[in-house]
């Protein structure tokens, strides 16, 4: 039979316009704490704070929602930042010895919340400068910058160098004023003979301007010399002959004295007098934590108060032998003395205090401490100096993030109860405390819906974050450790020594106080959270961990003490020949335990063997949970406290699954043997074999594909997966659905499971009161009736590609609503009159029916890592919405497909293909946004929707007129630079509004990436697997079939998809 090839139809302009109104890719904001911070600055007039990082990023923060991000051209560490107070300008010094000037500039008006927002500003680099080398000196180290000082006049910058010279630059032009340059030789000539000794003074360590007399500079050299320099007359006014290596200097507000800190752990107070030009000794000198050798005091601040006793703050100074490894900041005032003990290194700190000249005292209100892993703010007005909760910049990685889950459209009642539980956890509130960094104005409209981001952590905690806006704010923290016996019992509260009378009797010196929440250490790695699922309507939460523990929790507003029911589910089903060699299960508490308000455990389901849970599903309306491990999956009725189903998915040769992730007994010989087998298989399958005598269907497919390469070059050869590969029984996804499984007329509850070896299991469930069959006839009143599960169908995908997700579509081709949504009229009821279809996504292929499929690996050469069903709204028509399948691949790009036709829509490059952890951590929202980790402490937020966008829109009132950005840079306000310096901006795809040309939309067939073992937030699909074909022919696509995959299915909305399983 002759085959005719038809030319592919051209693009439909109307459809292209609709796609532009639906889809647009933007990286919008970075949530969390900046990775590897290296510099800190504060503008007391604008009340803005800036943080620089080792990757060359600058982030400016004000009140919650006010954020600006800038990125240097080179990913070089930022060593210093300084604001030009009130001007909206800041200077950055990089590790490559270059100075950069940044400005807040006016951006183009933006559409937000249906209204034009004027006055939006963004951060932009306007100039850079590098000090020239000194004549006759080959090495540039002499002009390497060590310290910067902005004069109060705002038009002069003092630059101290490693060679001991001080240079002066005019601002904001960054031009060198050579006539004012001060070299070390001029200072040495003024020194007494006995102090010179032929030695160099060393680098300039500190520059401080006199607080009362402008133009007078205090210059501190590393050797210990401090010089009071009169810049107008260019002469040395006073010399302070220090003998200890200098670390930092600070003026007292009146200018009558200054304080110097040194590398021996001490600080000295020097008096500035008019009678004596050379001062040999300080007024006082003390080593606070002596007399034994101490570490250097890196920085010291001296703030005056009305009480007469200054507040002294300094970092370092700990005794070397006993506490040399501590990261500390000391606060002293009169007899009050506190040593703040942090879990990460102190980068820098500043105080928030009065800076107006007519004010007599500093009166510090807060101290802000930038640490390597978090930001800590202490309230200095409240007795006891408590810490203030941070509305943003919270350390997401206080314990390492292991999984995440997103919930959109949170009901107000649930939100209020979670907020109350979170406030109860914080305990005593500061009396006067308010967030001191409150500059700028947030122009973004208030969120229409509340959004939750749940993160699971290595220490067994689940943290709830307010993800509704730009600022990711901590809301509530749940700990699962108190359900088990661990080495460190949380109920003992070992971290609160104030309640222990013995601890109170012996006063510890130094007086340490643990501050901050960053704690990288886990008491037991088995506590780590692997999967989370939350029902926002019933307030039920399921949390699953590394040791096979699955905990069902309910929300309570009162503290309670009760035992937790424990049920053990054996997934091996007494199968012989398997011996678990991994970690033991966690020992549950059998006695009643006290649980604070919030989510409290109801029942603990323990999988045996205690392998890590790889998939979980919750259907609160049916009171059912399903869970899977590397050995199989189970179904549990948490209302009746009984196990409904346990199914083993292990292959007879799958012995690696019995060793567990924490096992140390894996056989090196076996691993090498398996690796060599894979290499041999790949070599053999890559050779061309005679088509006449194929030994398998896979070889037939590959041979036929090789013959057709000149006809269909876009297809790629698919390597077969061995049936005895290790970990083939891992359950990758679970899904509940009310659909047709037994026949086409009676629908009912079903459970779907997909495995790593391409197996799909479909179970019909008998749930009292659910469905149109026999279960409904029983009535919901029979409380004693148990749920039953009967295997309805078992499918083996031919190429054994892991199943990433399974989802059932109704008669209109739309995803089924979440539990309670249909029964409580919270969503449009599903179409139960027409036949349903099942959407199965594997690593290699997307498939709805035998004729509706898209072979992603064959066409794109990539593998699916994450899948989600998303509702995209139109920016042009308020009531128009399309359900779309979003697919993230192992190459880091996003593919969008229409459903149920699986027609490719657009493709966007999102994540670098080398960023495996970022791909693995990606989580989607139901409205077209997503999150992924760009560092251990930061989430990148992105949007695929042209309508739904969460990005900073802010303004700042400056002392100077705002300059507008050039037209070519107008997208700077839309697509902020990536702070970790690793992501490229997508020109042409950033704006994504209707004015975007059709060419800006990427072709759907180009690249493909994905790699992620996180849970797929707020969806019934748990994206972590892959799917392939029922038949080998699915991998051998003819040209007609390939064109059909790309062709638009015209009757998408009205067609009948046939029986659920073919």
UniProtKB/TrEMBL annotation:
GO MF, any single term: myosin II binding
Repeat recorded as keyword: yes
Any matching Pfam family: WD40
Top-rank taxon, per record: Eukaryota
Assigned GO CC terms: cortical actin cytoskeleton; plasma membrane
Compositionally biased intervals (Low complexity): 964-977
Domain Lethal giant larvae homologue: 286-386
Keywords: Exocytosis, Repeat, WD repeat
Record InterPro entries: Lethal2_giant, LLGL2, WD40/YVTN_repeat-like_dom_sf, WD40_repeat_CS, WD40_repeat_dom_sf, WD40_rpt
Positions of region (Disordered): 422-441, 486-515, 964-1009
GO BP field: cortical actin cytoskeleton organization; establishment of spindle orientation; exocytosis; Golgi to plasma membrane transport; regulation of establishment or maintenance of cell polarity; regulation of Notch signaling pathway
Regions of compositional bias (Acidic residues) in chain numbering: 489-509
First and last residues of every WD repeat: 71-104, 449-466
Family per similarity comment: Belongs to the WD repeat L(2)GL family.
Protein name: LLGL scribble cell polarity complex component 1
